[in-house]
Specification:
The complex is a heterodimer of chains A (599) and B (382). Chain A is of the alpha+beta class and 599 residues long. Helix content of chain A is 24%, strand content 35%. Helix content of chain B is 42%, strand content 20%. In chain B, strands 7-8-6-5-4-3-2-1-9 form a 9-stranded mixed beta sheet, sandwiched between helices. Chain B has a 3-stranded antiparallel beta sheet with strand order 10-11-12, with no helix packed on it. Chain B has a 3-stranded antiparallel beta sheet with strand order 13-15-14. In chain B, helix 1 packs parallel to helix 2 and helix 3 packs parallel to helix 5. Chain B is globular and about 60 Å long. Classes of the chains: A alpha+beta (599), B alpha/beta (382). At the A-B interface, helix 13 of A face helix 7, helix 8, strand 10, helix 10 and helix 13 of B.
């Protein structure tokens, strides 16, 4: 029986009160006692708290008594960034409803839209929630209008709450129960659940966060993962209530966590369907996609001697993140390190930051690259994720680059500049249509390489935050691409090479060298920076040598101050990599990310 | 058996000036009446007697009065100081006994007073021999002052040192000519040539362009070499055998005792540095130093940083005796390639030293060795 189950998620812009509302729901349903509560209960990763984002999905079960019945409210917390769009879609497809939280002092913010549209695509019942009504500056009517105008949802039944004070939260719970439909009943004879997240537990192996759609899963059941085609046995079933609580069974409509002795997280795919090994479902649940790594970069320890530590850290991190991959790479400039693959730039950032923080490593990352397909003169097909590994020109028949389909939702007033942005990025318009009189969806086929760096930021700044985007891999297309080398004092530095569109190579070479001149500090020698294609130099800049770097006085009273000064100087060099006689800072390796801006 | 002699210096800080100079970053005040100076002088002499009583007389190798301007202290202070030394059984002639002085404060009488106290080394803040530059520095002395006071100072003191500042201000200077004029007037035995470091004050005069500063430095070096001076530290030059005993204590990890507001002291055996707060009133009331016991890694850094400033460089045997490890062993291949293979530094069986060229990049070299020390200590921790 599913009639007393409600599966829902919360959609909100950063700072509009998602975490606070979640905290309050846990408290008011009695799931968390006053003693147990702490702020941002669900975002328990340090990085999540700091950035105000959710990286891993969670599902918290809150029992709640209402009108004499006990309901089971399952709050499914999802990440919210475009890099994780696929995970979000799987989490949303595990819900029947969503609370759309809008800050009454801010109104509807753009970032929310992508997830609202996704929720609507999954036919979720959306309950509008206007939050922060306790604040002086709250404009409830304005928030209502914006929800109606921009999103097109009726707000006559919107919940008015203050997540901070708890005002209106009991009424919200009532609306949630009355408006969000219960999960559908089991399809006869079938047993199926959707995996919408997973992580590694050192004692039980990989844990799967699942939503049961049909039938039930019990301890000891032999299960079958339909896409991975692997069989396991359920060793433990648990639910977060909100603390981890073991349960014997998960039935239709319920969410929970299972452990099945899975040792390698790569065997688990988000969106896969779990069924029983003996009575396999004929069809998996809809919507499975292979998660595709979009961005690649080299990660190296600043100190080469710490390679082994980095390796251990990568292994540990990969245990918990099936969408991150790494393989050993050797750079003549940077020594031993790894070529790593990510879902997108935010994912890259998060991995790098976690490596540095949780494992106390200082790292140099090279410019992000996409995966190019190279057809050699002999007809072989190579996938190149590291620009330096591009074969010599004479061995290449042609190069193809990945194109994506990008869908941009925007208020109509920003069409002009957004179209220009897409054109500038070598995009090809495939569709443009009005969703409402003032909301437009623009679709482009565009090289992935052009959107991974700063496209998202540009889109946001052009549309003052109101446009949202989503993209998916389309195909490889032939492109006129060249490898642009950067030479430092005459020697090419492998880790600085980039693959660029031929027509913009000259411009790119100039702006890259200019940018590097600004970020490479003066040193004991002059530093000559050249950009070249093969032996043809396109641009040259130089950093003059400094001639003197010594403190004039150092007597008894100066020792401490002087030492601290030098320690600071040393710390300033932490992010620098010694390449031959020259120290190159991290920013130089990433100069390509915002090279255009220096023009 | 008697313990080995612990070469010790005493530094007394006199934080008073007649007026503040534009370039100066030391702790100093311009007191309104002499009673404060008298009270401070009394406290300093009392404290000195205490320190002398605590040490073996034979250990003291140097007494140094710095500032500020010690030459502004009243005669009674110098008389009391002399008496304190005699009472402790110390023969001033056996020490290097230095007083810093501003030429503008000096007279035949004050020179006599210093000599009578036992001072045998006079360190004069000449700074420049160009009236426009002296004015820009906020100095009261002019060439006329120097002309009057340098020759008698030269006559009175066996050991005479001048401080010179270069790399100062925007106007071009002929440092060789300034030095020639000074040496003709009264040739010193020792000279400290400091590249101007602009204090963090809005009104502080600007530094010279880097190229100008380097030309001036080269002019100074050429001139001093012709006068048979040797650069024995980044900014210090002397005729052989006349290097400052006191300055060397700082760089060679020896013991020095600080006395006075803003004075610093160091106990190498315990790895302790201490300093008295920059407050004249506090020192008069009760001298209470701020003491810091430094961790081993910090001590290793300081040892290297200080010794590298000298022409002799880091004595390897003393380093391994002090820290139980060999300095060459902790140098990384990168440091060796950047500094040793390129002639910025040299490593012999006994010393690691910066070459003349390397002294210009000493901060870069030292920071690299700091890094090597940190790596070594981390890899060998526990």
């Amino acid at each position: 029986m599913t009639k007393n189950i409600r599966n829902f998620s919360i959609i909100a812009h950063i700072d509009h009160g998602k975490s606070t509302l979640a905290d309050r729901l846990m408290e008011m349903t009695g799931a968390l006692s006053a003693r147990e509560k702490r702020d941002q209960f669900l975002d328990d990763m340090e990085l999540e708290k700091e950035r105000g984002i959710t990286i891993k999905a969670r599902a918290v079960t809150l029992p709640y008594k209402f009108e004499g019945e006990t309901y089971e409210l399952n709050l499914i917390d999802t990440p919210g960034h475009v890099d994780f769009a696929y995970e979000v879609s799987r989490a949303l497809s595990s819900c029947e409803g969503a609370l759309l939280v809008v800050d009454a002092t801010q109104g509807v913010e753009a970032q929310t839209l992508a997830n609202v549209y996704m929720a609507l695509d999954h036919d979720l019942e959306i309950v509008p929630v206007i939050n922060k009504i306790d604040l002086q500056s709250a404009e409830i009517e304005r928030a209502r209008h914006e929800i109606e105008d921009i999103i097109g949802i009726d707000t006559s039944d919107a919940a008015l709450v203050s997540a901070k004070t708890g005002q209106g939260v009991p009424e919200l719970l009532e609306k949630l129960i009355k408006r969000v439909p219960p999960p559908r009943e089991q399809a006869p004879g079938e047993t199926r659940a959707l995996i919408f997240d997973s992580w590694f537990d050192p004692y039980l192996g990989v844990r799967l966060l699942i939503r049961v759609f049909d039938g039930e899963f019990k301890m000891g059941d032999k299960i079958w993962l339909m896409y991975s085609e692997k069989e396991y046995e359920i060793l433990e079933i648990a639910r977060e209530m909100p603390f981890m609580t073991k349960v014997p069974v998960l039935g239709t409509g319920q969410v929970g966590i299972i452990a099945a002795g899975i040792k390698n997280i790569k065997e688990v795919r988000i969106g896969d369907t779990v069924t029983l090994a003996k009575r396999r479902a004929p069809e998996p649940l809809k919507g499975f996609k292979h998660m595709k790594q979009m961005v690649f970069c080299g990660i190296f320890p600043v100190e080469s001697s710490r390679y082994e530590e980095l390796k251990t850290a990568m292994e540990k991190l990969a245990l918990n993140d099936s969408s991150f991959s790494y393989e050993q790479e050797n750079s003549s400039a940077l020594g031993f390190g790894f070529r790593c693959g990510f879902l997108g730039m935010l994912h890259l950032d998060i991995v790098k930051e976690r490596l540095e923080r949780e494992f106390d490593l200082e790292l140099i990352t090279t410019a992000p690259s996409v995966s190019y397909k190279v057809i050699t003169a002999k007809g072989e097909e190579l996938y190149i994720q590291n620009p330096d590994k591009l074969p010599p020109v004479q061995h290449i028949d042609h190069i193809e680059e990945p194109f994506v389909k990008i869908a941009i939702h925007t208020p109509a007033e920003y069409i002009g500049p957004l179209v220009k942005l897409c054109q500038d990025k070598r995009g090809r318009q495939t569709n443009l249509h009005y969703l409402t009189p003032d909301r437009v969806m623009i679709e482009y086929a565009i090289p992935l390489a052009e959107i991974v760096y700063d496209f998202y930021d540009k889109l946001k700044s052009i549309s003052r935050g109101f446009a949202s985007m989503d993209y998916e891999f389309l195909d490889y297309e032939v492109s006129d691409l060249v490898k642009l080398d950067i030479l430092i004092n005459g020697d090419p530095v492998d880790a600085l090479s980039v693959i660029v569109f031929k027509d913009s190579a000259y411009q790119m070479g100039r702006s890259l060298t200019q940018k590097m001149r600004k970020v490479i500090p003066r040193q004991m020698y002059e530093v000559a920076i050249q950009a070249a294609i093969g032996s043809r130099v396109l641009a040259r800049e130089s950093v003059k040598a400094f001639r003197k770097d010594v403190t004039a006085k150092c007597y008894g009273g100066d020792v401490t101050r002087k030492r601290k000064l030098l320690e600071k100087q040393k710390e300033g060099k932490k992010r620098m990599k010694q390449v031959g006689m020259i120290e190159i800072p991290q920013e130089a390796f990433l100069a390509v990310l915002n090279a255009q801006e220096t023009e | 058996m008697r313990a080995a002699r612990v070469a010790t210096g005493i530094y007394i800080h006199v934080p008073f000036c007649v007026s503040r100079c534009a370039y100066c970053d030391f702790f100093s005040t311009v007191p309104e009446d002499d009673s404060l100076k008298a009270a401070y002088g009394d406290r300093v002499v009392t404290h000195l007697s205490l320190e002398l009583a605590r040490m073996r007389a034979g250990d003291l190798v140097s007494l140094y009065l710095g500032g500020g301007s010690p030459s502004t202290m009243p005669p009674s202070f110098f008389t009391a100081l002399g008496a304190a030394l005699r009472n402790a059984g110390i023969e001033p002639a056996a020490l290097e006994f230095t007083v810093e002085a501003n030429p503008a404060d000096l007279s035949a009488r004050s020179l006599d007073l210093f000599a009578a106290t036992g001072v045998n080394r006079l360190s004069l803040g000449v700074q420049a021999a160009d009236d426009a530059v002296l004015a820009a520095m906020g100095r009261r002395a002019t060439r006329a002052t120097l002309k009057k006071i340098l020759p008698p100072a030269r006559e009175k003191f066996g050991d005479l040192s001048y401080d010179i500042i270069y790399g100062f201000g925007k106007r071009p200077r002929d440092l060789a000519a300034e030095l020639a004029w000074l040496f003709d007037l009264a040739a010193p035995d020792h000279l400290s040539a400091y590249c101007y470091t602009r204090p963090h004050r809005r009104a502080a005069p600007p530094i010279a362009p880097e190229d100008t500063a380097i030309e001036e430095e080269e002019a100074i070096a050429r001139f001093l070499t012709t006068r048979r001076f040797r650069r024995y530290e980044v900014s210090n030059w002397a005729q052989r055998g006349l290097e400052s005993v006191h300055n060397r204590l700082y760089w060679s990890w020896d013991r020095y005792i600080g006395i006075g507001a803003g004075a610093h002291g160091f106990e190498p055996r315990e790895g302790i540095r201490y300093r008295y707060p920059d407050s004249v009133a506090a020192f008069i009331r009760r001298p209470a130093p701020v003491v810091e016991r430094l961790p081993r890694e910090t001590l290793m850094r300081e040892f290297t940083m200080l010794a590298l400033r000298t022409a002799e460089g880091v004595p390897l045997a003393k380093f391994s005796r002090t820290f139980g490890i060999s300095l060459p062993k902790l140098l990384s291949p990168v440091t060796r390639a950047r500094f040793l293979d390129t002639g910025f530094a040299r490593l012999s069986a006994t010393r690691l030293r910066a070459t003349n060229r390397g002294l210009s990049f000493l901060n870069t070299l030292t920071a690299a060795i700091f890094d090597d020390i940190e790596r070594h200590e981390r890899d060998h921790a526990g």
